[in-house]
From TrEMBL:
TM regions (residue ranges): none
Ranges for region Disordered: 1-22
InterPro entries: Homeodomain-like_sf, HTH-type_Tx_Regulator, HTH_TetR
Ranges where the HTH tetR-type domain occurs: 21-81
Lineage: Bacteria, Pseudomonadati, Pseudomonadota, Alphaproteobacteria, Hyphomicrobiales
Gene Ontology molecular function: any one: DNA binding
Transport in keyword set: no
Protein name: Regulatory protein TetR
Keyword annotations from UniProtKB, A to Z: DNA-binding
Keyword Hydrolase set for record: no
PANTHER family named in the record: ACREF/ENVCD OPERON REPRESSOR-RELATED, ACREF_ENVCD OPERON REPRESSOR-RELATED
Length: 229
């Protein structure tokens, strides 16, 4: 116990060498595979190291607890998705809005379809184990990526705020993809979901944005008095 407490007090090893990356990845992959078989509360660290093929002490060199491992899995998978979207946008070069939207949504659908059960576990862990500050930080990064994608489109209106438009778009996509994965949507459904999300997103972007209320202006009270119909 004293040795474990001493290890916990120190900063965890951060993978630097290829072998360290492989060990950390093996632990994370084993954890995700076990989550596909049983709930988080029933997965033990001893099971994780057994599946990963590493020693118990090695686990504590990288992660202080199962919760920290869960947060690391969420963070790294989120980072990979963000980088994939950024690479897809960069590869487009010059593009119009419809092309950019379809490319971004297709990239997400392809990534989710490659490992749907792992992404299902990702969204479940994100809801229960991510710290609020980390969740909001990741959310803001995705909003900025969508803002950049909209602004770079050749036909994006110069007088329209891409930041304002990015919020409902990403919120829609995040919710629909997460819900589909948590429900266990079959692989055959990803193509139809992608096409529907492209149509819905473009319709959302084509709709006029409500005018911003001036500072100090009161919102109109459209509520009807009780008793009236």
């Amino acid at each position: 116990m004293a040795k474990r407490a001493e290890t916990s007090a120190k900063s965890r090893r951060r993978p630097v060498q290829p072998r360290s990356h492989e060990t950390s990845r093996a632990i994370r992959d084993a954890f995700v595979r076990l989550l596909d078989e049983k709930p988080f509360s029933e997965v033990t660290i001893r099971e994780i190291v057994l599946v990963a093929g590493v020693g118990l002490g090695t686990f504590y060199e990288y992660f202080s607890s199962k919760d920290e491992l869960a947060r690391a899995c969420v963070h790294l998978r989120t980072k990979d998705l963000l980088l994939a979207l950024r690479r897809r946008r960069t590869a487009l070069g010059s593009y119009d809005l419809a092309t950019g939207v379809r490319a971004a949504i297709t990239a997400q659908a392809e990534i989710y379809a490659q490992a749907p059960r792992e992404w299902m576990q990702h969204f479940m862990l994100e809801r229960h184990k991510s710290e609020r500050s980390h969740y909001l930080e990741a959310y803001d990064l995705f909003l900025k990526e969508w803002e950049a994608l909209l602004e770079d489109a050749s036909d994006w209106p110069a007088d329209r705020s891409a930041a304002d438009a990015a919020l409902p778009v990403f919120t829609l996509l995040y919710g629909m993809f997460a819900h589909a994965l948590i429900r266990g949507m079959p692989l055959a459904g990803f193509g139809a979901l992608r096409d529907e999300l492209v149509r819905t997103t473009l319709a959302c972007l084509a709709a006029p944005m409500p005018a911003r209320a001036e500072a100090g202006a009161k919102e109109p009270d459209n509520r009807r008095p009780l008793g009236r119909r």
